[in-house]
Fold these 3 entries.
Entry 1:
Amino acid sequence: MTKKALLILFLLFTVISFNMTDKSPVYPSLFTKEFPLSTPGIFLSSTLGMRRLAADIVWIQSLQYYSRVGRIPDSTVVNGEKKLFPELIHYWQQVIRLDPLFISAHLTGPITLGWNLERTEEAIKLLDESIETIEKMNTLLDEKELLESEIEHLLMVGDKRNLEEVKWKLLTLKTVLIFLEEGEVGEASRELESIAFKENAPEEIRIMLAQIYQQEKSYDEALKMWLYINNTTRCDSVKGLSARKIQKLKKAIFLN
Amino acid sequence: MKKTANKIYQIAKFTLLENLKRKNFLILFLFVIIISGSGILFSMLAPDKEVRVITDLGTASIELFAFLTAAFVSVKMILQEMENRTVYLILSRPVKRWTYIAGRFLGIAAQTAFYIIFMTSALALLLLIKGWSWDFYLVGISISIFFKVLIVISFSIMFSLLSTSSASSFLSIFFLWSLGHFSDDLLVLGEMLAESGIHITPLLRIIYYIIPNFNILNYKDFYHVRAPLSANFLFSCGYALGYSLVVLLISVILFDSKEL
């Protein structure tokens, strides 16, 4: 009798606690997304509750795929033209669909496509998806009553501010890519300057700006940018690249 | 009351010491090797996102190791005692069956807590070396993992009382673990199937409410969105605790009716 009474009591406690918790999913279900690169690991990670880790793994896969060091780049022929890294857009899509709050992926993907590979159309397609995702996530987080009560938490405040900022960064990047497509390099560099020195700006934005300065023969500005990259980067290959660029630019400034 | 509490404590202590003797803790060294290796690997593969990747891999490994040890230890211990009849040694003394179950549960929970604390400390140390600035979320994630594992321990005890094979018990727990993380997707799947003319949404909804919902405690995936140690966090932990107690009580009822 006591056991049955206790069972009912515990059951009630469980039901009440369950009702009080926030059960709305933070991320959209994987069933609602398309994954162009079929990776069974994604669903496995979802069923084991490891979605962030799955996004990290695809992020590393994307970097590995795009890395040219010691490998022949993946390519295909489209309309008689060689297209390098044809699957790159799919890799980036996979990352942002797995973790819609993976901010670096939202920014790095379009830069590699639009600036490095000069495929503005694909970059803008990816940017549009990112902007839409960030808008949805912002609305989703705003609509949660619970979050308002937790607003004082430092992490939460950081993220909510970031989402607005991320959307703004993505819109700026889209403008830059459109300017570059139309040959308006001055306008593009002005837009980039507004985000390049922000704390969370990815390295690719700074590299992109440094390269634009160099193309435009603004060697002093380019040198400043490469020095900044050299001081802030944690990546050995970027450190090496920036060191070489600094040497070259110092020579160019000296000769001029 | 004091006597009963003392008996539960003694059984829990015995369980903890027994497991330490069995050297299950060697799995912790495997964890240390994995996260140290990942520290070196990710500094080369993803230098920009090193801290994020190590945090994600580290917390996922803590959860997986805690789940595996808790499930294996619970299933193996109870089943072995039934098979070897060593359970008689304990029950022949003035120990009630429910005290035995409660003691075993608390002993395994204490062991898991010790493992989680050790692994979290190792991860925090590695992250600090990599330039991470201390944040309380790591503690929040570890607490949420512990509460998830409490449900696993209670189910493992129940399955080991129902089944005679450790393989089938373990597979059932693994299936439940997956389904518990998949619960949100079950509802979406139901809606999608309904659009295609297959109406099993009510059935999926029943399953959603019955199975343990591990997603609400999945702070390692959502720590940057759902703040740890908030009211929601406490309710989630309360849910896990209540759920484990319900399963444990069912186990006690099953054990009482079992002929040894």
Entry 2:
Amino acid sequence: MRSVNATVIIDRHTKMNKNELTVELSRQQTLRTEARIGLTKYVLALGAGLVAIKLILDGLQPLVVGQSPEAITALAAVIREFHLGSALGYLWGAGATAAWTIERKGKKRAIQKKSEYQGMVESGEPNRSSSGLTPTGDTPAA
Amino acid sequence: MELVLFGLGLFLLFVTWRWMLKPSLLDATRDKLFDLRESMRAYFIGTKEGLEHPAYKDLRMLLNGHLRYTEDLSFVGFMLTVFSAINHREDFTAVRDKLDKKFNSHTDSEETRRYIKEVRLIASAIMFEYMVKTSLLAWLFAILGAIVTFVKNMKKLGVLLTSGDSHIPWGRAVAAMLMVSFTTVGLGNNATARETLENSALHAL
């Protein structure tokens, strides 16, 4: 929920007609339902994440229990499954992620600079209003 | 061991979607909205009233609302609001008409009115596109709708394919198909959808 001044909300509501009040009521109900669905989605995603981590840890467990025959068999299984093609795939993923991170930092820097210059150009303009986003173009923390 | 790799793959897929692809889509959408705001500012500078024009003030507020609301926009929320609008059609129509009237009251010029309408439509379309791109449910819905639309319009498509036109803009055709499929079931870029998106945007600031 946005942190909106309570006075503004009251002021907004007192100026509403019947239709606007119905629409506003419906909007608030929608927001509540959306929040409940959002929470469910969050819990499900968290559960899926935990299952994924458990799968990884369960599979890796035999590798870290010592030099037992089971550990050697497990290590052999990893090597057998981890084909050269897969290794290249993971390397490609890591490279693409690194490139994306560098580009993103550059983009955020460009947005910040643009925001500064735009502020200079538009300062003093009539009817100028801001989106309220951060200088890097992100949604501000609630 | 396959399970380990499967788990790792799932985890990486989730990380890529949540912290890489989705933020990039969000930024790309906001870039489009900022560009629209810039072009709108340039348009009003060219008018007689310039940036003192009341329509500029309201349109800028609306676009700022869209910019601020983009990240919170969800397909589920949109659907819930559209269904609510269908249940309270009279109230939603009255509010929409009031907003339309407010925008139209700013000018007597038909050209400026057309321009205002165009900016509002483009802004809603940008938001709609982001919403569909970032929701698996919306994709499933759009694909199902597209199949229905495809079957319904097979005859027309056959004419298009046999017309001898070698240059068919497939990218645009697919996007249009998705929009048509949404509109078919009342969720497209029609007045209700625009009103839904604008109502949320105007409450975001």
Entry 3:
Amino acid sequence: MASLTDLTLTEAQTGLASGDFSSKELTEAHITAIEGARDLNAFVIETPERAIEDAERSDKRRASGEVGGIEGLPIAIKDLFCTKGVQSTAASKMLEGFVPPYESTVTAQMVEAGMVMLGKTNLDEFAMGSSNETSYFGPVVNPWKRNSDDQPLVPGGSSGGSAAAVAARLCLAATGTDTGGSIRQPASFCGIVGMKPTYGRCSRWGIVAFASSLDQAGPMTRTVRDSALLLQSMVGFDPKDTTSADVPVPDFQAALGQDIKGLKIGIPSEYRLDGTDPEILGLWDQGIKWLEEAGAETVEVSLPRTKYALPVYYIIAPAEASSNLARYDGMRYGLRVEGDTLTDVYENTRGEGFGAEVRRRILMGTYVLSAGYYDAYYIKAQKVRKLIADEFSVAFEQVDAILTPTVPSAAFAHGEKSDDLLAMYLNDVLTVPASLAGLPGISVPAGLSSDGLPLGLQLITKAFDEETLFRVADVIEQSAKFTGRPDMKA
Amino acid sequence: MSEKNLIKGQTGDWEVVIGLEVHAQVIAEAKLFSGADTSFGAEPNEQVSLVDAAMPGMLPVINKKALEQAVRTGLGIKAQINRFSVFDRKNYFYPDLPQGYQISQFSDPIVGKGEIVIDMEDGESRTVGITRIHLEQDAGKSVHDMDPISTYVDLNRSGVPLMEIVSEPDLRSADEAAAYLTKLRAILRYLGTCDGNMEQGSMRCDANVSVRKPGDDLGTRCEIKNVNSIRFAAQAIEYEARRQIEVIEGGGTIDQETRLFDANKGVTRSMRSKEEAHDYRYFPDPDLLPVNLSEEFVEEIRASLPELPDEKKDRFVSEFGLSAYDADVLVAEKAIAEYFEEAAKGQDAKTVANWVTSDLFGYLNKEGLEISESPVSAKQLGALVGLISDSTISGRIARDVFAEMCASGKDPGDIVEEKGLKQVSDSGELEGIVDEVIAKGTAQVEQYKSGNEKIIGWFVGQVMQATKGQANPQMVNEILRKKLTD
């Protein structure tokens, strides 16, 4: 039998069901793995005692015939989800030591479904970043190394800790959140499956807010089937989140294993950006061939406003963030740095509590909402956002899914893009359009670069059509036969 | 514009222009975006949910009752109901504002233009335009006087639902402003959308005041913030108008600024200038979807509207034959109107109206009681009027009975019975008494016969004395005239 940490989420579920091992054994194997991989810095906080307790309770439940959707499966939670009684930091000094007296809706549902929580994974501070280098608790190291040198690489961001942990076999799966690509981009960098559901599929209640109109939780796993399995326990209408959608929840795994004959797959030429790694364009062409071989029809679609997506995103997301983060004022919880006057307390607290990237985005957001700039930036960005969404709608009258690369490049080294803001922001250029339109997207590992790093392909479908998303992603996965895994010993 | 509203300055007459923004706490069972309780009088921070304290990841959920109440209020002032409205964030930092923004409505309020008719004491009516009503959440309360150094924050009010009711700059005097506030409060109470208790903070008012020479363009305005009684509002406006006139006539100019009213000194003081004004960076709250009201929702509320003061006044005049003035007084408060109607059931309404506005109000004012605390119930007052109408007691005796009712709370019939106050209307009995009085007053009979008809009062007095006031005065008069003329 393979090592317990090498199992997929689905295989582990089967193993538990047939009594091959207990949840406690499975959990202990992962706790050991986590302890052995602390140099990755994938976790802000490990919760081994809690995990063992969760596992023991799960084994008891199973013995009494009570089996939830993710019963006894050891999973890591991005430290953007508030977890009752467990420190929840958003990787910020501002919330260091903050222990919420409440549980986010998504994690509460996962607990209800039998999850064993291994700990809280590292991320870019307040989910703002594409490299996991902005975390107050230090950068996360990508378990993958490139062939050409031994430099530590970034895992992508903001869900970098989750992606690294899943890739390094520290957990069977993890939760992420995606605002402009924060699940899909690190999934691509770490060679795993990262899925962002339709905006409104998962409740945002209890997830530390970055940009409310974009934030969405999703699963990070090693296979498409695992993704469907985990998503099932995360979704659902929540009356506590007005923006969560009261729509029927399908059986996501039922969409897998179906053929895609006759499906139309859109290929948007506008995603063929200058500066995109030719290897990635090659992989994209390969993906098109796989889908055609499986019987799908590929169609050119036009999404001409794609080029405006990134600037629009960097107006809307910081605008919302500047307001969402106003509550961190040192008055009720989290960091407070004293001062002589009220203004001093605010300035000291927020100056020390927020890192440089968060401060930058608060400033950008404040600027675009200011009198005299609001119409020129925020309002205009909202109008363009609508046009981008409309463009997708038109395309989806024609096609069932859209195939693109996930990121224009493979993982880069720590510090490599830290001084070049634009280069850093360009990481999200291919994931941001679907975020702005609220559409579901998934990144599936599809190949390795010549330097030995994983590369992902992205699929996008229309809103609430996660079934087609999984159905096509399944075909990509089967065709790609991606078996690469990070060389843990290097 | 009527002349009497003008203020005399050294350089001539000045006109005051006033617009009011009233913050009315919505009766909605819970906060605007959380389920926390909003009842008055709780200990500090007892009514604070995770949402109200702006804990990380908490999300607002609109209280549907508050939407309903805002629509009800809009319909009550004959306003346009906006079926599409949006909640915006108004961003600023303050310790009693946990989220760092107030959720309010900026560009798309739930209620558009409407109107309120105000009734002045001289019987004149004026229509005041309402610009809009929007919903917003209240902030918490900063308490500065509990400690010499620290400020304490009470978040009980954080998130309490408010309607901001904005008037057009249609008011022209402090009295009109007071009449407007009184009428608005009455309408809100009739509708049951706000309890209007200003001393508990459930209704507050900001006054925008400017002055100009009649016919000129609008002057620069100052905003007086957070006035918490109708009397103070009138005082503040009066003071502010005279202050502005004095400044302008002294060669100065008015700075657009926010001012506070000091109720102890009766003056307004500068709080912050326009330059210090915040840039609130309003934008639509991405946590809340725009509000789309169905026609059905609005129509259901419309169908359930109660009779409002203006309609009630018209009905009191046409149905009961009351004077416009009496009707105004009676409809000014819902509780009084209800009391009156209950008392007037089956009775002479005009007599009931007189009793309510003179004797009952006189007693309540003297004792400092609200109508709801009246020891005399509406039914009892109606019964008292009934006893007068059917000649069981005279009007004069009725006053004594009323005093006894106030003191004991007893039914008028019981009091009349117990004390034997029943009017003597037996003509045989009365004739006997009259005969006795005439026999005693030979001198007065002479006077009467020589033409001094007023002397009849002496005879009536004697009869009343003999009957302890219970003789039917009309019958006594008739019998006396007949016997004296014989």
